[in-house]
User: Which sequence fits this backbone?
């Protein structure tokens, strides 16, 4: 009986929906003003014309809605605030902030359908985005005046064949976070500056029954990142070293970088939580923030998470000391940068938004919330937790992190072996899997 | 030619043919257009070097297919997937049937029990995976330590020997529901007088099961088999939510491998080639299965 | 005899209750965690939420995105189920009856079966291109896509079921002068109902809970999100907050749980009324 009723309802719904489907095209154009303008820009790909289309839209609809897609969840709230401010200053403009947890899939499908969001955060130093830049998915902003306000190192990093497609907002630096309250409670007042000091501090913490070093080894993405960043610290030019392995001039087991990576992890694993292999990054970050761990390897982006977890956490980021005692440089990467797509519904407003982001007060606002080192001129970087990192950047004691040079996919290929090693400390297996990973990926690229 | 009768029949058939064509057309069209056409496009991409983003790509023939076995990854993933699927199918049929028989007994609160046992089916597999991921970290170790069981006093998902079993458990936790109900339906199609007769004849419980229950539910078993087979061979959500294929690559299914190659390493065309190859393997297995069940039916 | 049966029933109860505990425990933890603050949870995950903490749940339920996602999900599911009701049984009827004599229909059947074995990834990116070219990257488009994708499995189930229904009754209807359409609607369709229930429940649950298809087609803004997308995106944003994370779990499964509570009898009844008869 109930079933019958249900089917009647369904049938009615279908009748309605088939009507919608029948007049497919019509329905689509009627539905939203957005769809209309997308069509307009698609039909007229030439820049000037589509700008006209955008203005027409603005004139007729009275309002333009641009989509701002964020693939970094931790900056959503601050970007919502900034977008609101932008809309306030630009009446008739609406910015819709969307975010996704699966950026890789979303950006790819949006690109495939030629419907990239109007504005989005990109990673201009990565091959994935460079390919898209070259293919014309994003607006070339080389001539934009406000780019002169961006730090030259950052500009260099986001250069793509002599052109620019993104405004880099911040640089992330990578190192070791120390929870100063935990260290202080155990009589340690300063962050260590050599590997020996670090191990000595870990020893102290361990003796006092404190988890010294948090290593979220279940999170294979985090394992991959740790490998990539620290391998880069051990040898700033891992590309050449691994190339030798790929070319058969060296075997993985003889690679100094891989050996050192194993050594230092063997050291650190003595001081980590028992369940490190079962720990995800978010859990480790929470434990660290709440004082259940002394050190954790991470980058400047983690500060926002730490403060969200525990506003009173007293943490400090310091450089990862070279495990073999050589000089240490800090790996940096472009953290957030914004681009506008070539299918942007209103490029003028899109460009205006990029300019807005580089305005001193806005960049300051962003920097304060984001925690990464700002690349915008005039922004005061006064985050005490990251003072060490600022010094490194100012002194030029930095290098662009390895992933930007490695052949595409190496990080994802090698990470399984890394994770296995962290679990079973089997060096031979690790070298074997690294050998295969390096050979395969270098052969592909 | 037996004019009259035949002409009536063929007239009916002609009328029927038109209607049947009409019945088949919409589904056939939708399926061809939104299912087969993308698949054909996919097959075409598998012969190129497309990375999934660039606007241009080159035709490279069957190179991607030749590369599938260049490393042991695909074989490893395939073996994992097959092992996982066999276990999933066996457990689904055994436990599904077992629970269905329990739920089919004339006991008080039968409707209540049936209601509860279906609840996991209404949840999304991703949510289920995420919930169990948290449970494995926060709760299982507490239980393990309390009971002094070494193996589960840490996150079992981190243990390369246990991780697959946890995923399998979670998959069954949710995946048993529908098969159980299908079995329950099958059990109710067994005429009760057959049971009563057998009981009077003094048949043992096993004999009753073997000679009365099994023949009646065989068609259900075959449906459950195909659906579970598909679920097992394509397993992705649970693994993505719980281990991402780890530790190392110990729980990496073919679907996870395809995801890794296509979406984290930008080897999209290569990933499709792997997916197509996987499809062929599955089709071969299923063809064998269908051949045998058809044979059985014919007997 | 009587005694033996009683003992067995005790065993039955024990086993069933054990099973229920396995089913309920994770759900219990999910629910209580959603209604406890993080501080409460970190003390123990098993205790009841006393005092009850409603902030997380309120935060989810007062989010307009949640309600929009809910409406989208209902909309998509309804269209897909309606499409399944109209298209699949009639198509399966034609295929099942013509298959023995017509090579063409046999080919159609195998052509459909093929779909069951094609991994999703093969068609994923082409699908995106196709849908966007047709301007179908929206809930309605997704619903049509889902109907198409459900064809193979639905037809497989219906045809298998049809095979067990002897054509006698249709013959009788024909002799009584009913046309094919009448025969179908008054004789065949009612006979297919038990299987229809199974198919609808299976497809309905799939659509409601699917993640991958919405992720690739409905990622142009929260206005299009389904509940799974809402839950996923919301949860990645607040992954460090268990209370909020579990509250989104609860919120995204609640509608279906409530629906199930009300419809439980017809759902279980529909499924067990002989979904598969030999």
Assistant:
């Amino acid at each position: 009986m109930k079933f019958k009723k249900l089917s009647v309802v369904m049938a009615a719904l279908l009748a309605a929906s088939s009507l919608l489907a029948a007049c497919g095209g019509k329905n689509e154009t009627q539905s939203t003003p957005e769809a209309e303008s997308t069509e307009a820009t698609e039909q007229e790909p030439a820049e000037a014309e589509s700008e006209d289309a955008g203005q027409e839209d603005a004139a007729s609809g009275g309002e333009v809605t641009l989509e701002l897609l964020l693939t970094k969840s931790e900056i959503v709230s601050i970007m919502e605030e900034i977008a609101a401010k932008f809309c306030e200053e630009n009446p008739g403009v609406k910015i819709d902030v969307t975010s996704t947890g699966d950026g890789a899939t979303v950006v790819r499908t949006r690109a495939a359908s030629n419907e990239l969001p109007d504005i989005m955060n990109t990673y201009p130093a990565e091959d994935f985005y460079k390919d898209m830049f070259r293919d014309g998915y994003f607006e070339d902003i080389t001539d934009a005046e406000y780019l002169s306000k961006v730090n030259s190192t950052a500009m260099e990093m986001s250069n793509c064949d002599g052109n620019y497609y993104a405004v880099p907002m911040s640089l992330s630096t990578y190192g070791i976070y120390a929870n100063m309250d935990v260290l202080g409670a155990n009589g340690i007042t300063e962050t260590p500056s050599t590997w020996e000091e670090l191990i000595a501090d870990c020893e102290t913490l361990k003796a006092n029954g404190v988890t010294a070093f948090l290593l979220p080894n279940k999170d294979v993405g985090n394992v991959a990142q740790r490998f990539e960043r620290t391998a880069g610290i051990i040898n700033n030019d891992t590309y050449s070293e691994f190339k030798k392995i790929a070319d058969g001039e060296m075997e993985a087991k003889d690679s100094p970088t891989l050996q050192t990576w194993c050594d230092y992890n063997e050291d650190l694993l003595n001081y980590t939580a028992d369940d490190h292999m079962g720990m995800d990054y978010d859990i480790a970050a929470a434990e660290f923030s709440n004082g259940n761990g002394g050190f954790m390897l991470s980058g400047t982006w983690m500060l926002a998470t730490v403060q969200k977890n525990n506003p009173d956490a007293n943490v400090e980021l310091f450089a990862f000391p070279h495990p073999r005692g050589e000089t240490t440089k800090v790996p940096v990467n472009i953290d957030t940068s914004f681009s506008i797509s070539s299918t942007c519904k209103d490029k003028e407003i899109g460009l205006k938004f990029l300019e807005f982001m580089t305005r001193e007060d806005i960049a300051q606002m962003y920097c304060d919330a984001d925690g990464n080192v700002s690349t915008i001129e005039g922004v005061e970087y006064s985050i005490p937790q990251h003072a060490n990192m600022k010094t490194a950047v100012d002194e030029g004691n930095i290098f662009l992190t390895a992933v930007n040079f490695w052949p595409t996919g190496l990080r994802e290929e090698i990470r399984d072996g890394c994770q296995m090693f962290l679990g079973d400390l089997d060096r031979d297996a690790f070298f074997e899997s690294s050998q295969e990973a390096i050979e395969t990926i270098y052969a592909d690229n | 030619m037996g004019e009259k009768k035949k002409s009536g029949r063929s007239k009916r058939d002609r009328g029927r043919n038109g209607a049947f064509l009409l019945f088949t057309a919409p589904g056939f069209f939708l399926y061809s257009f939104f299912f087969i056409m993308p698949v054909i496009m996919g097959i075409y991409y598998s012969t190129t070097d497309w990375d999934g983003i660039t606007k241009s790509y080159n035709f490279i023939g069957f190179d991607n297919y030749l590369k599938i076995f260049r490393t042991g990854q695909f074989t490893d993933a395939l073996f994992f997937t097959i092992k996982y699927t066999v276990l999933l199918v066996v457990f689904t049929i055994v436990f599904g049937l077992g629970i269905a028989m329990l739920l089919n007994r004339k006991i008080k609160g039968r409707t209540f029990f049936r209601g509860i046992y279906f609840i996991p089916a209404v949840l999304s597999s991703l949510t289920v995976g995420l919930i169990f991921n948290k449970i494995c970290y926060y709760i299982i170790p507490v239980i393990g330590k309390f009971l002094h069981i070494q193996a589960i006093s840490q996150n079992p998902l981190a243990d390369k020997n246990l991780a697959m079993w946890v995923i399998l458990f979670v998959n069954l936790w949710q995946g048993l529901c529908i098969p159980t109900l299908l079995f329950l339906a099958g059990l109710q199609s067994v005429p009760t007088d057959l049971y009563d007769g057998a009981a009077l004849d003094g048949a043992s419980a096993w004999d009753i099961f073997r000679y009365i229950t099994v023949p009646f539910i065989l068609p259900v078993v075959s449906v459950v088999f195909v659906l579970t087979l598909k679920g097992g061979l394509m397993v992705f959500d649970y693994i993505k939510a719980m281990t991402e294929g780890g530790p190392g690559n110990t729980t990496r299914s073919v679907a996870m491998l395809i995801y890794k190659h296509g979406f984290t390493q930008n080897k999209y065309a290569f990933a499709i080639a792997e997916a197509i190859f996987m499809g062929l393997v599955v089709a071969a297995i299923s063809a064998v299965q269908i051949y045998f069940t058809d044979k059985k039916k014919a007997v | 005899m009587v005694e033996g049966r009683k003992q067995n029933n005790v065993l039955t109860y024990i086993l069933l209750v054990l099973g229920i505990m396995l089913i309920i425990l994770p759900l219990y933890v999910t629910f209580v965690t959603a209604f406890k603050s993080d501080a409460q949870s970190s003390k123990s995950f098993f205790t009841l939420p006393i005092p009850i903490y409603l902030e997380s749940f309120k935060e989810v339920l007062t989010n307009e995105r949640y309600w929009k996602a809910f409406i989208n999900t209902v909309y998509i599911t309804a269209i897909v189920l309606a499409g399944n009701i109209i298209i699949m049984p009639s198509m399966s009827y034609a295929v099942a009856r013509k298959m023995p004599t017509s090579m063409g229909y046999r080919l159609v059947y195998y052509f459909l079966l093929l779909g069951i074995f094609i991994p999703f990834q093969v068609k994923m990116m082409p699908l995106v291109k196709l849908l966007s070219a047709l301007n179908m990257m929206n809930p309605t488009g997704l619903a049509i896509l889902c109907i198409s994708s459900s064809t193979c499995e639905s037809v497989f189930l219906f045809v298998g079921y049809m095979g067990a229904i002897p054509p006698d009754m249709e013959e009788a209807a024909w002799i009584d002068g009913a046309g094919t359409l009448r025969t179908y609607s008054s004789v065949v369709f009612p006979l297919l109902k038990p299987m229809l229930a199974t198919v609808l429940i299976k497809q309905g649950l799939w659509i409601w809970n699917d993640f991958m298809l919405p992720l690739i087609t409905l990622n142009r803004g929260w206005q299009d999100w389904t509940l799974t997308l809402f839950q996923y995106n919301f949860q990645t944003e607040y992954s460090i907050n268990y209370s909020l994370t579990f509250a989104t779990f609860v919120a995204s499964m609640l509608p279906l749980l409530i629906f199930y509570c009300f419809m439980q009898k017809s759902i279980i009844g529909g499924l067990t009324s002989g979904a598969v008869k030999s």
